[in-house]
Amino acid sequence: MAEGALDPQDLGGRIVGGGADDVERAAEAALRPKRLEEFVGQRVVRDQLSLVLQASLARAAAPDHVLLSGPPGLGKTTLAMIIAAELGTSLRVTSGPAIQHAGDLAAVLSSLEEGEVLFIDEIHRLARPAEELLYVAMEDFRVDVVVGKGAGASAIPLALPPFTVVGATTRSGLLPAPLRDRFGFTGHLDFYSAPELERVILRSAGLLGVDVQHEAAHEIAGRSRGTPRIANRLLRRVRDWAQVRGDGILDLRAARSALEVYEVDPIGLDRLDRAVLTALCRRFGGGPVGLSTLAMTVGEEPDTVETVAEPYLVREGLVARTPRGRVATTSAWQHLGLEPPAGTWAAGSPDEGTASRSRALFDEV
Ligand SMILES: Nc1ncnc2c1ncn2[C@@H]1O[C@H](COP(=O)(O)OP(=O)(O)OP(=O)(O)O)[C@@H](O)[C@H]1O
């Protein structure tokens, strides 16, 4: 991730939050797949991207601009790096929040070399003047450098060599249509299935030089919220437990014990998630209850509840968002070992419509 980029999901010690801090990013770097064939899952996006890249290599021309959307930790940055590696070119990295003024972006664009890939993380957070400058650069490979001030100011067009923008966003719904339209290829990353996460874990264990038993990988995958970043993080915590309290072997006992220490329950919920469910069911009789009231009850900011805990609770069919507030479903009551009162919202099966639910949620939140 780019210098200065803010991660709304970066919440200190929360082990299943989607974001990552600097220490974690260093640990992650070693585990990143370097080529498309190493990238686990996301078959559709991988196939489509592979075509785009192969065609561009065959034509010896820079490929169309690429937009990657999806929740944090699913591999957008990794794919941007892979795109540059597959094209045999270098990657320049920046982010929406790091670009304060249009001039900052003009400086980055005018220093690009032919065929380079420019990765713009959190592209939905670009300021409007920078956004407008980017449209022109993406379409006409040109930046207008403004010289002078006020009435005497004039714009000198500066031609840019062909390059490819890879934009990443967790909120594609916030991107203005003119910017979205400049991308020739858009890939949406969805949450990973448990078997895919198991493959991520086995691959990472190999790179870390630790031997993880299949049952342990299965257990960790089931608690990783469909997210490779979380799977890798939990794997490292299980390795810690095995080294400090176990016999060094990453088996089922080590996985379960470590995840108990870190309060990650069998379906991947942590303390905050359970606090939200408990408040909804025990305090408010299952809801509906407003976000601010709910957040106050669990001692968190509404934004934290909304962007960190809620997406997964909704995706798993434990909480429903209604116009009148948040509602606990029958699954939420059952997960807490409580009897749902008559008339409680029924939940769909957790996997039903996961992709569309996750997409809708991240676009709208
Ligand atoms: N398909 C995958 N196969 C293997 N590992 C993956 C895959 N996707 C992601 N990872 C791992 O998960 C970690 C997080 O991925 P990455 O930083 O690319 O996510 P991101 O979507 O860019 O997140 P953010 O939006 O928070 O920056 C990386 O260390 C990477 O090793």
Automatic annotation (TrEMBL):
Q: Which domain of life is it from?
A: Bacteria
Q: Chief localization class?
A: cytoplasm
Q: Domain AAA+ ATPase, which positions? A: 62-195
Task: Extract the ranges annotated as region (Head domain (RuvB-H)).
Answer: 266-365
Keyword field: ATP-binding, Cytoplasm, DNA damage, DNA recombination, DNA repair, DNA-binding, Helicase, Hydrolase, Nucleotide-binding
Query: Where DNA is bound, by residue?
Result: R321, R326
Q: Alphabetically, which GO biological process terms does the record hold?
A: DNA recombination; DNA repair
Which residue ranges run through the membrane?
A: none
Which cellular components does GO assign to this protein?
A: cytoplasm; Holliday junction resolvase complex
**Residues annotated for Mg(2+) binding in this entry:** T77
Quote the Pfam families the UniProt record gives. Answer: AAA_lid_4, RuvB_N, WHD_RuvB
Asked if the record carries the keyword DNA repair, the reply is: yes
* Single GO molecular function: four-way junction helicase activity
UniProt cross-references to SUPFAM superfamilies, sorted A to Z = P-loop containing nucleoside triphosphate hydrolases, Winged helix' DNA-binding domain
What does its UniProt record remark on the domains?
A: Has 3 domains, the large (RuvB-L) and small ATPase (RuvB-S) domains and the C-terminal head (RuvB-H) domain. The head domain binds DNA, while the ATPase domains jointly bind ATP, ADP or are empty depending on the state of the subunit in the translocation cycle. During a single DNA translocation step the structure of each domain remains the same, but their relative positions change.
By its UniProt entry, which HAMAP family does this protein fall under? Answer: DNA_HJ_migration_RuvB
The free-text function statement in the UniProt record for this protein reads: The RuvA-RuvB-RuvC complex processes Holliday junction (HJ) DNA during genetic recombination and DNA repair, while the RuvA-RuvB complex plays an important role in the rescue of blocked DNA replication forks via replication fork reversal (RFR). RuvA specifically binds to HJ cruciform DNA, conferring on it an open structure. The RuvB hexamer acts as an ATP-dependent pump, pulling dsDNA into and through the RuvAB complex. RuvB forms 2 homohexamers on either side of HJ DNA bound by 1 or 2 RuvA tetramers; 4 subunits per hexamer contact DNA at a time.
Instruction: Identify this protein by name.
Output: Holliday junction branch migration complex subunit RuvB
Q: What is the lineage of its organism?
A: Bacteria, Bacillati, Actinomycetota, Actinomycetes, Micrococcales
